[in-house]
Amino acid sequence: MTMINESLAGDFILVGFSDHPQLEKILFAVVLISYLLTLVGNTAIILISYLDPMLHTPMYYFLTHLSFVDLCFTTSIAPQLLWNLRGPYKTISPTGCAIQLYVSLALGSTECVLLAVMAFDRYAAVCRPLHYATDMHSRLCQSLVGMAWLSGVGNTLIQGTITLRLPRCGNRRIYHFICEVPAMVKLACVNIHANEVQLFMASLVLLLLPLTLILISYGCIAQAVMRIRSAQAWRKALGTCGSHLLVVTLFYGTITAVYIQPNSSYAHSQGKFITLLYTIVTPTLNPLIYTLRNKDVKGALRRLVQKDRAQQSEKL
């Protein structure tokens, strides 16, 4: 971490929710339960998608990567948050802060692009069903996932490095519960207008551009479905796209409120609660959405349970 300058000497203080001491106890329980559910739910989706041959399709290939991203994204934030909510010390070391910033930003940026990739997959499944198998071949799927990861890591190396190089003149109080770029930029003791412009442009590219592609994909899907008068086709399209659209709404609806909102309102508690939604709550809900609303996943669960029972019966 040679890019961390001397202004990072000494631990940072994560102010977080310390101005609401009674609320911290409630938040500790909520974050702990959410984190445990995230671990169990996303791990289950990864294992089910791997173990059931019926789920070896592009959709579940992308879903496996989304679950892995959510799993790592929450893990980069929740343990430190739980430690600060529970104990009297609300600090994080400079190295820990830099690692959290790099990892969480890389995973969050990757998820933005990955959700757009999943929308393209749904477009291919609904609008080009006869060509779906040939269009979404394994090499293309791997390339799309690789593009999502590279864009996330690339954005992080640029934004993270620029942010950590800013002189802070001893400012160590972060008015947030995580080391996030907008909060870290506020610690600078120099003119940060250029950094704010750079952050806004990066937000346009990695938030609004993927969101635009998602909306275009679903616009094409809606047009294709409108031309079909079969009620069964409507239900199939809704079942195919409904889960992903709900996940997109939850994730983009919260993260854009933080990164696109006016700078003057960022330091208020509203920004912290919105960040809590897309970093902790949304990764918890994603597995529930994909399992409760998805017949394929529920069917795979039943097959795995039946297979396990059959193996147990054979042993007896």
UniProtKB/TrEMBL annotation:
It comes from the Eukaryota. InterPro entries: GPCR_Rhodpsn, GPCR_Rhodpsn_7TM, Olfact_rcpt. The chain crosses the membrane at residues 26-48, 60-79, 99-120, 200-225, 237-261, 273-292. Coiled coil: none annotated. Pfam families: 7tm_4 (PF13853). Its main location: membrane. PROSITE patterns: G_PROTEIN_RECEP_F1_1, G_PROTEIN_RECEP_F1_2. Keywords: Cell membrane, G-protein coupled receptor, Membrane, Olfaction, Receptor, Sensory transduction, Transducer, Transmembrane, Transmembrane helix. It is found in: Cell membrane. GO terms for molecular function: G protein-coupled receptor activity; olfactory receptor activity. It is a multi-pass membrane protein. Residues 41-290 form the G-protein coupled receptors family 1 profile domain. Gene3D superfamilies: Rhodopsin 7-helix transmembrane proteins. GO terms for cellular component: plasma membrane. PANTHER family: OLFACTORY RECEPTOR. Putative odorant or sperm cell receptor. Belongs to the G-protein coupled receptor 1 family. This is Olfactory receptor.
